[in-house]
Amino acid sequence: MRRLLAWFLLVVGLACGLTGAALLTVLAPPERIDVVERVQDPGVAVVTRPGLAELSGPDVRLRAEAPDGADVFVAVARADDADAWLDGARHTEVTAVTGELSEPRARTGTTGTGAAADPRRADVWLTSTTGRGSAELTWPTGADDDYRDGGGIVLFTATDGVAAAPGTVRLSWHAEGRAATHPAGTPLAVAGGVLVLLGGLGVLLSPRPARRPRSRRRA
């Protein structure tokens, strides 16, 4: 009975260990959190809510795409400066990221009316870049603490302040902490290792059942 229990622990331990190893490797969550938002009527700009840039990891990547090869402007700004530039113009705000880590979704809302000034002629941006049809930049979120007095950091994209903003916006972060590993992976791997050790010792130390002597056949 003791030997049978040891074999049971050994088999269960192997199953737990292999499952945990799979969750930590081939079945691990994606290395990045990628959110793609396609807005039908974005207004003249798409702006993130302050604090969203620090969702995960040491930096955040913003990429925007516009149809027909239009000029795309992407930038990082203090929230107060971005609000001053918008001055009530119609724009879309990305307020949060929801859903599962494997399929995150952006939560957005549109507010304001009218157009704004050309963002390429403004001097309120901490960094910016322009591209034909698309543009992309990466911002180190560790620097955000230096701009708390301006209401925090926002990511921003537009075209010329009058035409519609890029309709496709991609936000990307390095996954870290709980987002980077499956929560059950490490516990299963550790538990599996302990059970394999106990089961293996049990198999080695348990006495084998004595063999019954064969009965001699009668002549």
Give the overall shape: elongated
Radius of gyration: 29 Å
What count of helical segments does DSSP give? 3
Strand order in the largest sheet: 6-5-2-9-4-7
The CATH first-level class of the largest domain comes to Mainly Beta
Quickly list its features.
219 residues, Jelly Rolls, 6-stranded mixed β-sheet, 4-stranded antiparallel β-sheet, 3 helices, 10 strands, 24% helix, transmembrane helix, transmembrane, membrane
Please give a quick description of this structure:
The chain crosses the membrane at residues 188-207. By secondary structure, this protein is α+β, with helices and mostly antiparallel strands.
Verbal overview:
There is one protein chain. The chain is α+β, with helices and mostly antiparallel strands and 219 residues long. The protein folds into two domains: 2-27 and 181-205; 32-177, Jelly Rolls. It has three helices and ten strands; from the N terminus they run αββββαββββββα. The strands form two sheets. It has a six-stranded mixed sheet with strand order 6-5-2-9-4-7. Strands 1-10-3-8 form a four-stranded antiparallel sheet, with no helix packed on it. β5 (91-98) and β6 form a beta hairpin. The chain is elongated, with a radius of gyration of 29 Å.
